[in-house]
Amino acid sequence: LALDTAWLTVGGAAPDPFAVFTAAAHRAERITFGTSIVPTYPRHPITMAQGAMTVDQVAPGRLKLGVGPSHRPGIEGTWGLEFNKPLSHLREYVTILNALLNEGEVDFDGEQLHAHIRIAQPTQVKVMISALRTGSFRLSGELTEGGISWMCPLPYIRDVATPAQQEGADAAGRPKPAMIVHTPIVVSEDREAVRAAARQQFGFYQRLPFYSRMLQAAGFEEAAGGEFTDRMADGLIISGSANEVADRVRSLGEYGVDEMLAAIVQLPEGGREARRSTLELLGELASE
Known about the structure:
Blueprint: E1 5-8, H1 17-25, E2 32-35, E3 38-39, H2 45-58, E4 63-68, H3 72-78, H4 86-103, E5 105-109, E6 114-118, E7 126-130, H5 134-143, E8 146-150, H6 154-172, E9 178-187, H7 191-202, H8 209-217, H9 230-236, E10 238-240, H10 242-250, E11 259-264, H11 271-286
Parallel strand pairs: 1-2, 2-4, 3-4, 4-7, 7-8, 8-9, 9-10, 9-11
Antiparallel strand pairs: 5-6
């Protein structure tokens, strides 16, 4: 398919991404691997680094390690862990990962996290974080190799996220890192089918506080009421004919996007054909 990166979403009791990527690296010798996103609270950063190091040993320089705090319902409801000061937690977490993976040792005592250890040698792992609001985009610019958004409208990426990321990079005296947009996409001209699939697959995000506030800031005031509207589906999902989808993907750079992480929408009818068409189109676009 000529795609550049194989990404895995990670949540709940999903298979461990580092085990999956380590196995895949023996067969896939060219592409890079990315996590979007490994929740931070259930894993101490040293444990996270151990998994990343395993992949880096068999696929040097080919892992994009995306981490993030996730959300209170999942962390407290599923794991039974306290979800406290997530942005401060993420800053401490990334500080530890950067030191250990990039420098080979860490000696850190923070408000929430502590780490004192060294490894045999630094790795080539690229540390990235999830980002929805200005604080996390700013942090991505300051400390990481990239910010990974999800369900963020493209105008919001251009007008809010990218300036915040640039601000963080400027404050740290470093180049702006990658803006990676994880976006729903499907080749289909059946707008009602796409909207129905969106309500089924994504209709709960606006009920999560972080997403609700982001969507409201992006101009979708109805997110405050917990409803996933057709207007939201149309604004968040790249869909249409093959030519229309291709044009929108080609225009992503105009919104400050450096890389697209594609989440193919599963249609209730004709889903297999739509998925095949979407994958083929993405492969063609990646080869341009």
